[in-house]
Design a protein that fits this description.
Length: 324
């Protein structure tokens, strides 16, 4: 059961097929990683990327469920591999409310577990028929990696511009959302204009989603998020609310809190979060996220199949009301 999709029974069934296919693809993993990988795959999350593929695949005339399931599994596995590696980079203990793979397996084994997921994902690129060009996939994975490398190389630099931040999240999150929404429309041979609209829809959704995720890192709770709050600050990652708050920091008090040692005490993180909340930066970040969502909703009005558009707009409603 995927609680996020319980209102969309047909889609939920398809997403279950995606999970089953991923489990099948990783069944030959070495014993020392297989049960851990399985539990990560089974924890499912919201499965937004595969859902975008499956929904997009209803928009063309050449509908083939099993082809769409394979495409959806490919994108979800790339996402999962990136999360495994991201948790190593961030030294994160928790993911989706359970201990991260790096916590359970140690860094060395988690690295190869992530590599293994990526390699098994790439095996799906050899599908015949109407599938994405490997070059398109490799470009997307490349952007994912380079954005993560940029973020890592700029660690502890909180003084970046909003544009710089937006370029970074475009690469690390919106790229895969855009490709997911586009690929569903593409493999079902939807009109080129519909494919382009789905690409932009996925992009806007991904941007809004990452901004919201960064907001929730400051105002969520450990229980609701399945990971500690304020993690971006303690990992030295600049996110939009902090960037906006620094722009308004006329007295320099926030800037002073961020300077010095690279290890913040719990008390200091609390002070930094309070400064951000007091500055009104959260509302400004929320408003930019809303702009992306409104653009996404406007694109839905231009889709030929309004039944499909409604599933996507209900998805946005549920995402907006989410607390994790
Ligand atoms: C989560 O973001 C991380 C990403 C969206 C991308 C991570 C990409 C890599 C590690 C590059 C390697 C890629 C592959 C395919 C192996 P976040 O840290 O903002 O979110 P979080 O709070 O959920 O961790
Ligand atoms: Mg992370």
């Amino acid at each position: 059961m995927i609680p996020f999709w319980e209102e969309e029974a047909a889609l939920e069934g398809q997403l279950q097929q995606v999970t089953d296919l991923i489990l099948e693809l990783i069944q030959d993993a070495n014993d020392y990683i297989s049960s851990y990988l399985r539990s990560m795959v089974e924890s499912q999350g919201k499965m937004l990327r595969p859902a975008l593929v499956m929904i997009g695949s209803r928009l063309g005339n050449d509908q083939d469920e099993s082809r769409a399931v394979r495409q959806a599994a490919l994108l979800e596995m790339i996402h999962l591999a990136s999360l495994v590696h991201d948790d190593i980079i961030d030294d994160a203990d928790m993911r989706r409310g359970i201990p991260s793979l790096q916590k359970q397996l140690g860094v060395r084994r988690a690295v190869v577990a992530g590599d293994y997921l990526l390699v098994r994902a790439i095996s799906l690129l050899t599908d015949k028929g109407r599938t994405l060009e490997p070059a398109v996939m490799s470009h997307a994975i490349g952007r994912l990696c380079t954005s993560e490398i940029d973020q890592d190389s700029e660690e502890w630099d909180f003084f970046i511009s909003p544009t710089h931040y937006l370029r970074r999240i475009a690469g690390k999150t919106a790229t895969l959302f855009a490709l997911s929404a586009f690929s569903g429309a593409f493999i079902s041979d939807a009109e080129p204009l519909v494919q382009r609209r789905m690409h932009e829809f996925g992009y806007c959704l991904g941007m809004a989603f990452q901004i919201r995720d960064d907001i929730l890192d400051l105002k969520g709770t450990k229980a609701s998020m399945g990971k500690p709050v304020g993690k971006d600050i303690t990992s030295g990652v600049a996110t939009l609310p902090l960037i906006y708050a620094l722009e308004r920091d006329e007295t320099g008090s926030l800037q002073r809190l961020l300077q010095g040692k690279r290890k913040f005490s719990k008390r200091k993180v609390g002070l930094i979060i309070n400064r951000i909340l007091d500055s009104g930066a959260l509302a400004s970040a929320e408003s930019l996220s809303e702009k992306y969502l409104n653009r996404a909703l406007a694109l839905l009005g231009e889709l030929p199949d309004q039944e499909t558009a409604k599933i996507l707009s209900r998805m946005i409603e549920r995402l907006v009301s989410r607390v994790s």
